[in-house]
Design goal:
Elements lengths: L33 E5 L3 H13 L3 E5 L2 H10 L4 E5 L7 H10 L11 E5 L6 H7 L4 E4 L4 H12 L1
Parallel strand pairs: 1-2, 1-3, 3-4, 4-5
Helix pairs in contact: 2-3
Length: about 150
């Protein structure tokens, strides 16, 4: 699951930030962002959707890598939050296909952020080798998500 604790980016102690202040840590353009969330766990999906929507970010969710590719063919997104271990097609395979610009996928440079429960040594490198741009370990704090979004979308 993804905890709903909000923390301030850059704070030495990661002091909690009131939810009403969370949007102050996003650039004004955040309301124009459109994200795709590929996550098969219903609870993790709902929590992540709640966080992103509460921040005013438009987000659509799919259950696996195959569905992510289908959505990417149909609509333009600014960033994908991609779970690594999913049924039908995992996030590694889906990202490799995005990077290969095959099968009618329009943007091989689209930022793809790994979202995984695996914090094993070498997992980050495995994600990056598959073509993912960055890496978040579940459960993550909202501040960590905000930091990644700012890094790749501003």
């Amino acid at each position: 699951t993804v905890p709903l604790q909000l923390t301030q980016a850059g704070s030495p102690e990661n002091d909690p930030v009131p939810e009403s202040k969370a949007t102050e840590w996003l650039p004004e353009t955040a309301n124009d962002w459109t994200l795709l969330l590929a996550e098969d766990d219903p609870i993790s999906q709902q929590v992540a959707l709640g966080i992103l929507k509460n921040l005013g970010i438009e987000v659509e969710a799919v259950n696996n890598g195959y569905e992510a590719l289908e959505h990417l063919r149909e609509r333009e997104y600014d960033l994908v939050l991609m779970d690594c271990q999913m049924p039908v097609m995992d996030g590694y395979t889906a990202t490799r296909l995005i990077r290969a610009a095959r099968e009618g996928l329009p943007n091989p440079e689209l930022p793809v952020i790994a979202v995984t429960a695996h914090a094993f040594i070498g997992e980050r490198e495995k994600c990056l080798a598959a073509g993912m741009n960055d890496y978040l370990t579940k459960p993550f704090e909202t501040q960590q998500l905000l930091s990644v979004l700012r890094k790749w979308l501003t």
